[in-house]
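in:
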């Protein structure tokens, strides 16, 4: 059924609702075998109007998925008002100098297309889906919203209130509060991954002015290091022509922040954020990884980390969750390392009455993994698992577009998508266990608890 749908064309005569349903179904399916063929040689890549454009044709018919990014994330304004990037991103789809937000929404609605913007630590991320025939419209609208936002005072006021509400709601989440404290503890001041706290962000929102947002847009929005990836039923010459037209004359932009490695902080190694009346406690155990994606030891440590806690067959899940029944969920991962060195962490959720036992069991598994390493059998099984999951991820237009974009942002290029399975399969046991000892140290890891922690004094309330 899925393979059949991936090859179906989407008739132009279908009603809009039917087009939307087929667009949603087809946009996530590639023809069988696409993810197993060589990818990089089939990528059409060119610099158009200063924008790095990657085009990859798949077996899906009539549907195109677009992913993109440019360096305009929160870290770019860390030395000034940290809310400017987020506010700027919020205003991109609230009308342009050429047409209202309602006119844009009506055009997208009529053809069943979508355009979304999201602001991360370093990137403004672009995501869109449309039918092949509507690619010119969508590329034109993306360019218009990036280049000519209206920046109306009314929408700016609304955006400030909306962002403030989101931050205040997030501050009630134990996961959010644990992550906030963890990033403050492991990343040195000035590091791009050291996000502002919720209190700092709310204060920045309050003081932000529309002229500041306009100045941020003028400084950071431009074709320099802007990337657009289009995957699906793509016509390269048409796309190149449309990008050239839509982005003609666009100038400026900035590079991503390639900061020196985090030097650590003097934050307490163990921290408790007490939050009353919570049914669970979020726990993070970890440290800076010191690794950027693509560094020599990265794949080895990634495989080792996966064995410890990436899925149902991992050690943490098997012992702490399934065997001892101590947690709702537990995992380990390497993350936040696309542009600079990132972090290694275990994340878990425990009922308050099981917290002490849960952390003890988790530390037992972490220590055994660190001291004894992984086994040859675990490594061979994990190689198969990692390669399989990787191929599945590439078997969707969404996954393929996201992976191609990530390869550019990580500095490894589309060739990495073909090389990755080979790098996994070539790993040796000494390499994997050596990477654990070289880059990690459980005795120095930060331990964060956030929630209704038994016996802990209440933390100051968030504004």
């Amino acid at each position: 059924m899925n393979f059949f749908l991936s090859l179906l064309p989407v008739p132009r005569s279908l009603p809009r609702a039917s087009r939307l349903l087929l667009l949603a179904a087809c946009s996530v399916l590639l023809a069988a075998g696409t993810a197993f063929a060589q990818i990089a040689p089939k990528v059409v890549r060119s610099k158009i109007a200063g924008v790095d454009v990657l085009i990859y044709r798949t077996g899906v018919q009539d549907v195109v998925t677009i992913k993109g990014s440019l360096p305009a994330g929160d870290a770019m304004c860390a030395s000034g008002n940290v809310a400017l990037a987020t506010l700027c991103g919020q205003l991109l789809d609230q009308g342009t100098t050429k047409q209202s937000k309602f006119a844009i929404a009506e055009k997208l609605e009529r053809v069943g297309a979508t355009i979304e913007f999201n602001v991360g630590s370093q990137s403004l991320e672009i995501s869109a889906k449309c039918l092949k025939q509507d690619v010119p419209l969508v590329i034109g609208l993306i360019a218009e919203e990036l280049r000519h936002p209206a920046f109306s005072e009314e929408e700016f006021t609304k955006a400030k209130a909306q962002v403030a509400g989101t931050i205040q709601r997030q501050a009630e989440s134990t996961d959010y509060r644990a992550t906030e404290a963890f990033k403050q503890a492991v990343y040195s001041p000035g590091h791009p991954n050291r996000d502002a706290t919720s209190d700092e962000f709310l204060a920045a929102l309050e003081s932000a002015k529309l002229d500041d947002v306009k100045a941020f847009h003028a400084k950071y929005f431009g074709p320099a290091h802007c990337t657009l990836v289009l995957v699906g039923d793509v016509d390269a010459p048409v796309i190149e022509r449309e990008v050239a037209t839509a982005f003609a004359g666009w100038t400026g932009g900035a590079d991503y922040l390639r900061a020196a490695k985090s030097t650590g902080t003097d934050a307490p190694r163990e921290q408790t954020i007490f939050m009353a009346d919570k049914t669970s406690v979020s726990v993070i155990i970890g440290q800076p990884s010191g690794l950027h994606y693509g560094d020599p030891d990265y794949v080895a440590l990634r495989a080792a980390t996966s064995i410890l806690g990436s899925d149902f067959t991992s050690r943490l899940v098997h012992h702490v969750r399934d065997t001892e029944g101590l947690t709702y969920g537990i995992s380990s991962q390497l993350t936040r390392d696309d542009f600079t060195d990132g972090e290694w962490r275990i994340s878990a959720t425990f009922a308050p009455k099981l917290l002490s036992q849960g952390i003890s069991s988790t530390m037992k598994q972490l220590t055994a993994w660190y001291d004894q390493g992984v086994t040859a059998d675990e490594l061979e099984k994990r190689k198969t698992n990692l390669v399989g999951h990787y191929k599945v991820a590439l078997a969707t237009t969404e996954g393929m577009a996201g992976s191609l974009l990530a390869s550019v942002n990580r500095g490894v290029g589309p060739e990495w998508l073909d090389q990755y399975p080979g790098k996994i399969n070539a790993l040796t046991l000494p390499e994997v266990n050596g990477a654990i000892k070289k880059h990690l140290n459980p005795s120095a890891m930060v331990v964060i608890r956030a929630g209704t922690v038994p016996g802990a004094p209440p933390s100051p309330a968030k504004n």
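note: Residues 1-14, 31-35 have pLDDT under 50 and may be disordered.
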